[in-house]
Amino acid sequence: MSNGVPTNGDSAETHTASQRYLSTRGEDTGFSFEEVVLKGLANDGGLYIPEQVPTAEGWETWKDLSFVDLAFNILSLYISPAEIPADDLKDIIRRSYATFRADDVTPLVHLQDNIHLLELFHGPTFAFKDVALQFLGNLFEYFLVRRNEGKTGRDRYHLTVVGATSGDTGSAAIYGLRGKKDVSVFMLHPKGRVSPIQELQMTTVLDPNVHNLAVEGNFDNCQDIVKALFADPEINKTHKLGAVNSINWARILAQTVYYFYSYFTLARQQGDSFTVGDKVRFAVPSGNFGDILAGYFAFRMGLPVDKLVIATNENDILDRFWKTGRYEKKPTYGQAAQGGLPADGVKAHEDGVKETLSPAMDILVSSNFERLLWFLAYEFASDAGMDDEWNKRQAGQEVAAWLGDLKTKGGFGPVYRGVLDAARRTFESERVSDPQTIDTIRSVYQAVGYVLDPHTAVGVEAARHQEQQNKPQSTLPIISLSTAHPAKFAGAVTLALQDEPGFEFDAKVLPAEFVGLEQREKRVRDVENAWTAVREVVRKEVEVELASKEY
Ligand SMILES: *Cc1c(COP(=O)(O)O)cnc(C)c1O
Q: pTM score > 0.85 for this model?
């Protein structure tokens, strides 16, 4: 690979990568990028990862590239030109980020002290998931249209994406897929239980291939329906079901770009006080571990990362892992007695997920954590001095065993010391409560006049705590990821700022795009909480769509 990496968009012919993918649970190997993207989940239940994490040779010379050119260089390391010719890949990337309102796609702004905010919310739905889903939607369309070349009508491969959402993912997926050829999207949300803005963002999309289904039930019911559909042999015989959840590898891949891009932006902004090659920290508000995992890949590719700081809310399974080496849905009694359990009276669902002010991070387990576990197990196995194939096999077996215990016993661990040490070398973790989240929104507003959304506030509080700990590395710049626009979470922002003199939500926070949303035409269909009823709706609506197609 030494001189094979293109430094600009025109020299891609010299690029020789032929990246294949394997499953974290060891059974599936040798997959192409296209297979991985369209399949989502491996046959053995694992997640796909690249067989080799490529080194970004010559990355230092990418400092002044535009977001799109940088994205092209990075993505080319994972997608061979035999799969997507360079010009096509470039075009997909260009179209994916043309929908962003900021010229530089993901701007970096100085917040206070050493903390810089990476604004990831300038896409169509005002949240960071757009960065990945705009790209994923275009990729789906590209692969489908290519498979359908020369085919017409019913012979065309038609993808039916089905998903459940409690808010953020749904609107970003809908905006990623709206109007795309050969794909329908059905998004289930719990009727009346999604924030008003998020519901409107979904239901005001009128493209014929977008189907909003309001389920009489809660989010768990929606998820159960989706799971039942994926497991149903009948619908799988007649429809090709697809998923866009955060385990899709293309989403992780797209997100690695802004780690590099923000690093270079910082270097440009700081001038002489920061040179390319210096280290930074990243603080990342985390739920399913997809966002921060992209930072881990950037690090493994060669970006000088001092630490990745995981910021969780009160759903803190990740924070507990880093503190104890145990990954458990519920903290054990012993740990709770040592102060591991919050006493702040938040609502808890039956299954243990707490409703917090940062709902997009309300998870019980972090699905993408499995990918990191594989790399930790792989590094650990590598110490035994056997060959690479053996190391990979060991890693797959270890991950399969851990995830088996998670499923049957509700947790696993403590993991080997060496595994935990490896995790702590690259990551630190912080847990932020709801009261701390509110305090952070308020104090940042008072200090610099910037309005944080509650998820971003969790990250900023983690970053500030790191600074206060006054370690030698606390002088390093810290890039804190801003994952949503504050207008999406009006409740928390208002709670924090309503008593601030001169603060007015509509004037200070609300973007023009959200004004008048409730007057717009909506398309949403109520459905019963029964998966067979949803199956009927899916069949009928896909039929209507296909009947009206001219290609
Ligand atoms: C999804 C989401 C997160 C969490 O990201 P993960 O990849 O699940 O860790 C944080 N903030 C917002 C606003 C989100 O939508």
A: yes
